Amino acid sequence: MTTKERKDLAVWAVEYAKKKGASEVAASINNSRSVEIEVREQKIEKIKESTTNGLSLNIYRDHKYSGHSTNNLSKKALEKFISEAVEATKYLSADEYRSLPDPSLYPENLEKDLKIEDKSYVAVNPEKKVQIAKDIENVARAQADNIISATGGYSDDFSESIRVHSNGFVGERISTSFWAGGEVTVKDGDARPEGYHWGGSRFFKQMPTTEELGKQAAHHAIRKMGQTKIASGKYDMLIENRTVGRLLYMFIGPMSARALQQKSSYLEGMQGKQIASSALTIIDDPFIQGGFASRLYDGEGIASRERTMIEKGVLKQYYIDNYYGKKLGWEPNGGRTSNIRFDLGQRGYDAIVKDIKKGILVTSFNGGNSNSTTGDFSFGVSGFLVENGILVKPVNEMNISGNANQFWQKLAELGNDPYLYSSILSPTMLFNDIDFSGL
Known about the structure:
Elements: H1 3-19, E1 24-40, E2 43-61, E3 64-70, H2 75-89, H3 126-141, E4 147-165, E5 170-186, E6 194-201, H4 210-222, E7 233-239, H5 245-252, H6 257-261, E8 282-284, E9 307-311, E10 314-315, H7 322-328, E11 340-342, H8 349-354, E12 358-370, E13 376-387, E14 390-403, H9 404-407, E15 411-414, E16 429-437
Helix pairs in contact: 1-2, 3-4
């Protein structure tokens, strides 16, 4: 089925549902293909290919709402499917806030190229994909004699979606992504430290090299050798850029309109107020070329826009979707994150480390949770003890806990090194005087 045929089918499905009694309709047709490959000891341990092609319908009937999906796209089958969906919706309870977004919220221009589709996706043959995974494993194994397990991996994805609303929205999105990396385990006495490293791109030719991926995977495992607990106390905390994203969910959930409306957000009533150190500015930017979360509209058809969510520590906006925005009486601005970027600092990781007298470099968060209602959190962490600018030894089984309101006020500095293999382009972050629990 071609893109035009999918679009025509979505338009037909919307019109047919309206004919059967729906007040409003949103239809989306999604076509995707993904591949996963895993190699160990130069043998293929996993090769998985999946394809999906389906229709999803959101039916609104006199403010009654229901969602339906099917993989059978023949019109004869869809006539029965749509008729039953519209009829079933009639028996649900009405909710005055259930309706499509106002058409004024839809994008006016869908022609902007965000550079998220590699048109040569189909030209990457299976042999090349397997070889990438094998090369990563070979490079990783060559880094040390005590490596007892190494895995190379490759994955890619193609996704096409058509979205049509009965009140005027028609959108099309095609994207690709390519990922590769490795996982390594080393022998360290009775311990078995593990490490990984993955990287990706929207374009195959822009992927990181197998040399980089294999070396980094091994490096992240080898550097953990000799991990131990250290004494509890106050330490400066430096967080590795690829690890920072875990902390941001202290903000993202509580900033949603759903959490605010349901009184489950510690950030309720905090718009315009200081919620973090002035070092922190967070920008939601859907227009980054090649970004992993770049888009012209969100899952409700609402036009994307660049949004400064936190500016110099002050909460500027919430994430407001259509349904909960209506319940709150607020104009929707898109209820989900896109690419997250930061106002960066002036120094890199190495320069920041050199100025730390007594601190812990956190390289991973191991379990734990954060409470969106109270802001309380507790995380297990591992990383490295830093003394006088030098990484002294690896540490694990440490814990940090506290409340987000106080914790983010201790943010002292951001690095100039955003992590590129994520939609969260987080730099290294330095916090002062954090309580760690250990021995």
